[in-house]
Amino acid sequence: MIRFSFGMPLWLMGVYGGVMVLVVLALRLLLGKWLPKRVMPVLWALVLVRLLVPFSISSPLSLPVPGFLEDLGGFEMEQTAIAQYRLSDTIALPGTVWSTVEKDSVGSSAIPEEQAMVTVAEDTSDLPGILIDRLWGTGSLSLTELGYGCSSFPSLLGQLGMGFGGIGLVGMGVLALVLCLRYAWGRSRFKGIYPIEENETVRDTLVRCRINASVCTCDTIQSPVVVGIFRPLILLPASLDFRETGLVQHILTHEAMHIRRKDNLIKLVMMGALCLHWYNPLVWLMARELCRDMESACDEAALSVLGQEESAPYAQSLLSMAVPGLSGGLFASAFSRTEVERRIKGVLAYRKLGAMTLTAAMVVVLASATAFATCGQAPFNDYLGDWCYSGNTYVARAALNRPIDLGPSRNYARSRANAVVMEVLKYNAPDYTGVEALEKMIQQRLGREFQVEPGAFKVLVAPALDPEETAAQYKEQGLVKDDKGRWVMDGKLVHVLEDQMTGEYYSNSEGEVDVYIIRDEQYKLLRIESYLYNRF
Question: Hey, what's the torsion of the CAs at 520, 522, 525, 526, to 10 degrees?
Fold first, then answer.
C-alpha cells in the first residue's frame, strides 16, 4: 500500500537531499568507470526534485524519521493532540484491577457494541501509579512515542533555514539577488555579437544534432558558451578559425548537446535549490559536481553523434580551446585546464554503449529513483490504538511506522487495532512470553487484519507492574522509601536507582549507594544490586 502526500518540512528536505548527494557521489566513485556519463545528471536531477518538492511517499520501503532528527528538529507536542487522544484512554478487560466500566463507552465510535468486552478507563485513579508515571514520560516511553501530533515548525534545524527572526528568508533573498546580479554582469560582458551567415559547417552540424538555435560570434569571449533557455544562443569566440571545420564541428556538437539536454534549465532549477538551501554545504557541493558532470555527459553525447572514431580529434579540439585558469561556474561552460585534463581522459576512454551497459544504467536510475522517492518520509502522527491490558504481564499499544490509510476513519482503525492487541494479550501472550516475541506476534496479527506488511506497524510494550506488589518485592531486598520519599537501601540513602527494563530512574546527590534493579525478559524481579558510591 502506497500513500502520496505533501508537507515535508524544508529542513528535512535539505537533510534527505544531503544524504542523496552523498549517495550519488558514492555511486559515481564506485560505478563511474562503467556507467554512462549521461546517467549522473539524471541522478542529480532526482536530488533536485527531493530538494525542491515537499512530497512524501509512504511505502513498504519507507524508513522512519531517525530519532536524532526529531530531537534535533525540536518537535513539540501540540495541545490539540493531547485533547484528541487523552493519555487516560486505556483499554482494559472487565474484572481486571485497572478496568473502569463505563456504560457510555460501549457502542461509541471508539468501542463498537460487538467489542463490549472492552471498556475505556476514563479515570486514571484506578490505574497503578508506576504505569501512570511511565505513560506521562517519566519512564522509558516518551510523549512522542505515544503517537501525539508534532509541530511542523522545528526549533533548531528549521531556524537555520527559515527562523532566527527571518534570517533564513534574508539568506535566500540575498543569495537570489547575488545570483541575479552575477548573471546580469555575465550577460553584459557579451559584446560585439554578430550572427554567422550561411556557414555550411554550422548549418550541417545543427541539422545533424536536430536542434534549432542561433549561432553568433562574440568579440569578448575566449571559449564557446550557450546562453538562454527558451531561445538558446550559441556564442563562439570571434577568434575561432572557421576554416578548421573539424574543430568547429566538435565545438558546435558539444554546445548543441547542452541545448538538447536542457542543461541551462537544469542550472536554473539548481540555483533555486541553492537559494532555498543556502546554509547546506552539501547542496553547494552538488551544484559544483552537477556542472562538471554536465560537461562530461555532453562530451559523451557529442561522441555518440560524431562517432567513436572522432574521439582523438575531439580530445584535441578540447585541448585547443582550453582557457588556462578559467572555471565554468554556474552560468557558463568555459574550459579550464584542469577540467579539460579530466574530460580528455573520459573522451579517450569512450566506447559505444552496449545493451548490457544501457540495461545496467536503467537499473541504477530506476533503483535510485525508487529509493530516493520512498525511503525518506516526513514526520507524521503515528497514533493508531490505545494502551490495552488483559490482566497479564504487559500492557501494549499499536502504532504506525509509516503513514498509511487503514479505513474510512481513524476511530475505525483504532477500534480494530485495539481488538487485535487485546486478543493477542488475552489468548496468545501468557506471562512467560518475551517482549520481542509479543511485539512480533502483534505486528503479524495487525498485518493480517489490515492486509498490509507487518513492518508498517510498531508495538509499544510496557510492564503491568502492581505498585503494592512491587513495593513488597523491593522491601524483601532491603529497598524502601523513607518518610521523605527518598529511596533507602539497607539503611543507606540511594544515590542512583536505575531499572533499565522499565525505564525507571532516580537520583539523589546526598546518596551513598547506587542501586540497579535486574529483571528478566518478562519484567519479573530477579535481584537488586547495590554498590557504594565513590565521591572523588
Answer: -30
pLDDT higher than 90, residue 273: yes
SS3 call for 397 = strand
Structural contact between residues 118 and 93, judged by C-beta atoms closer than 8 angstroms: yes
- Annotate 252-289 with three-state secondary structure: HHHHHHHHHCCHHHHHHHHHHHHHHCCCCHHHHHHHHH
260 neighbors 209 (Cβ within 8 angstroms): yes
In 3D space, the residue among 90, 89, 91, 69 whose CA is nearest the CA of residue 150 turns out to be 69
pLDDT band at 92 (very low <50, low <70, confident <90, very high): low
Tell me, what's the pLDDT at 429? Answer: 64
Task: Share the mean pLDDT of the chain.
Answer: 75
Angle (nearest 5°) at CA 24 between 23 and 29: 95
> Hey, what long-range contacts does 321-330 have (CB within 8 A, 24 or more apart)?
321/223, 321/224, 321/247, 321/251, 323/222, 323/223, 326/222, 326/223, 328/291, 328/295, 329/291, 330/179, 330/182, 330/267, 330/270, 330/271, 330/287, 330/291
- Which phi-psi region, left, alpha or beta, contains residue 495 (left: φ > 0; alpha: ψ -120 to 50)? alpha
Cα 230 from Cα 259, distance rounded (Å): 10
Do 426 and 91 touch, CB atoms closer than 8 A?
Answer: no
Phi/psi for 223 (5° steps) reads -140, 145
Contact call for residues 156 and 72 (beta carbons, < 8 A): yes
What number of helices (H) and strands (E) belong to the chain? 17, 17
pTM, two decimals, is 0.69
Q: How many CB atoms lie within 10 A of CB 372?
A: 21
Residue 392 is placed in which grid cell?
A: 497479564
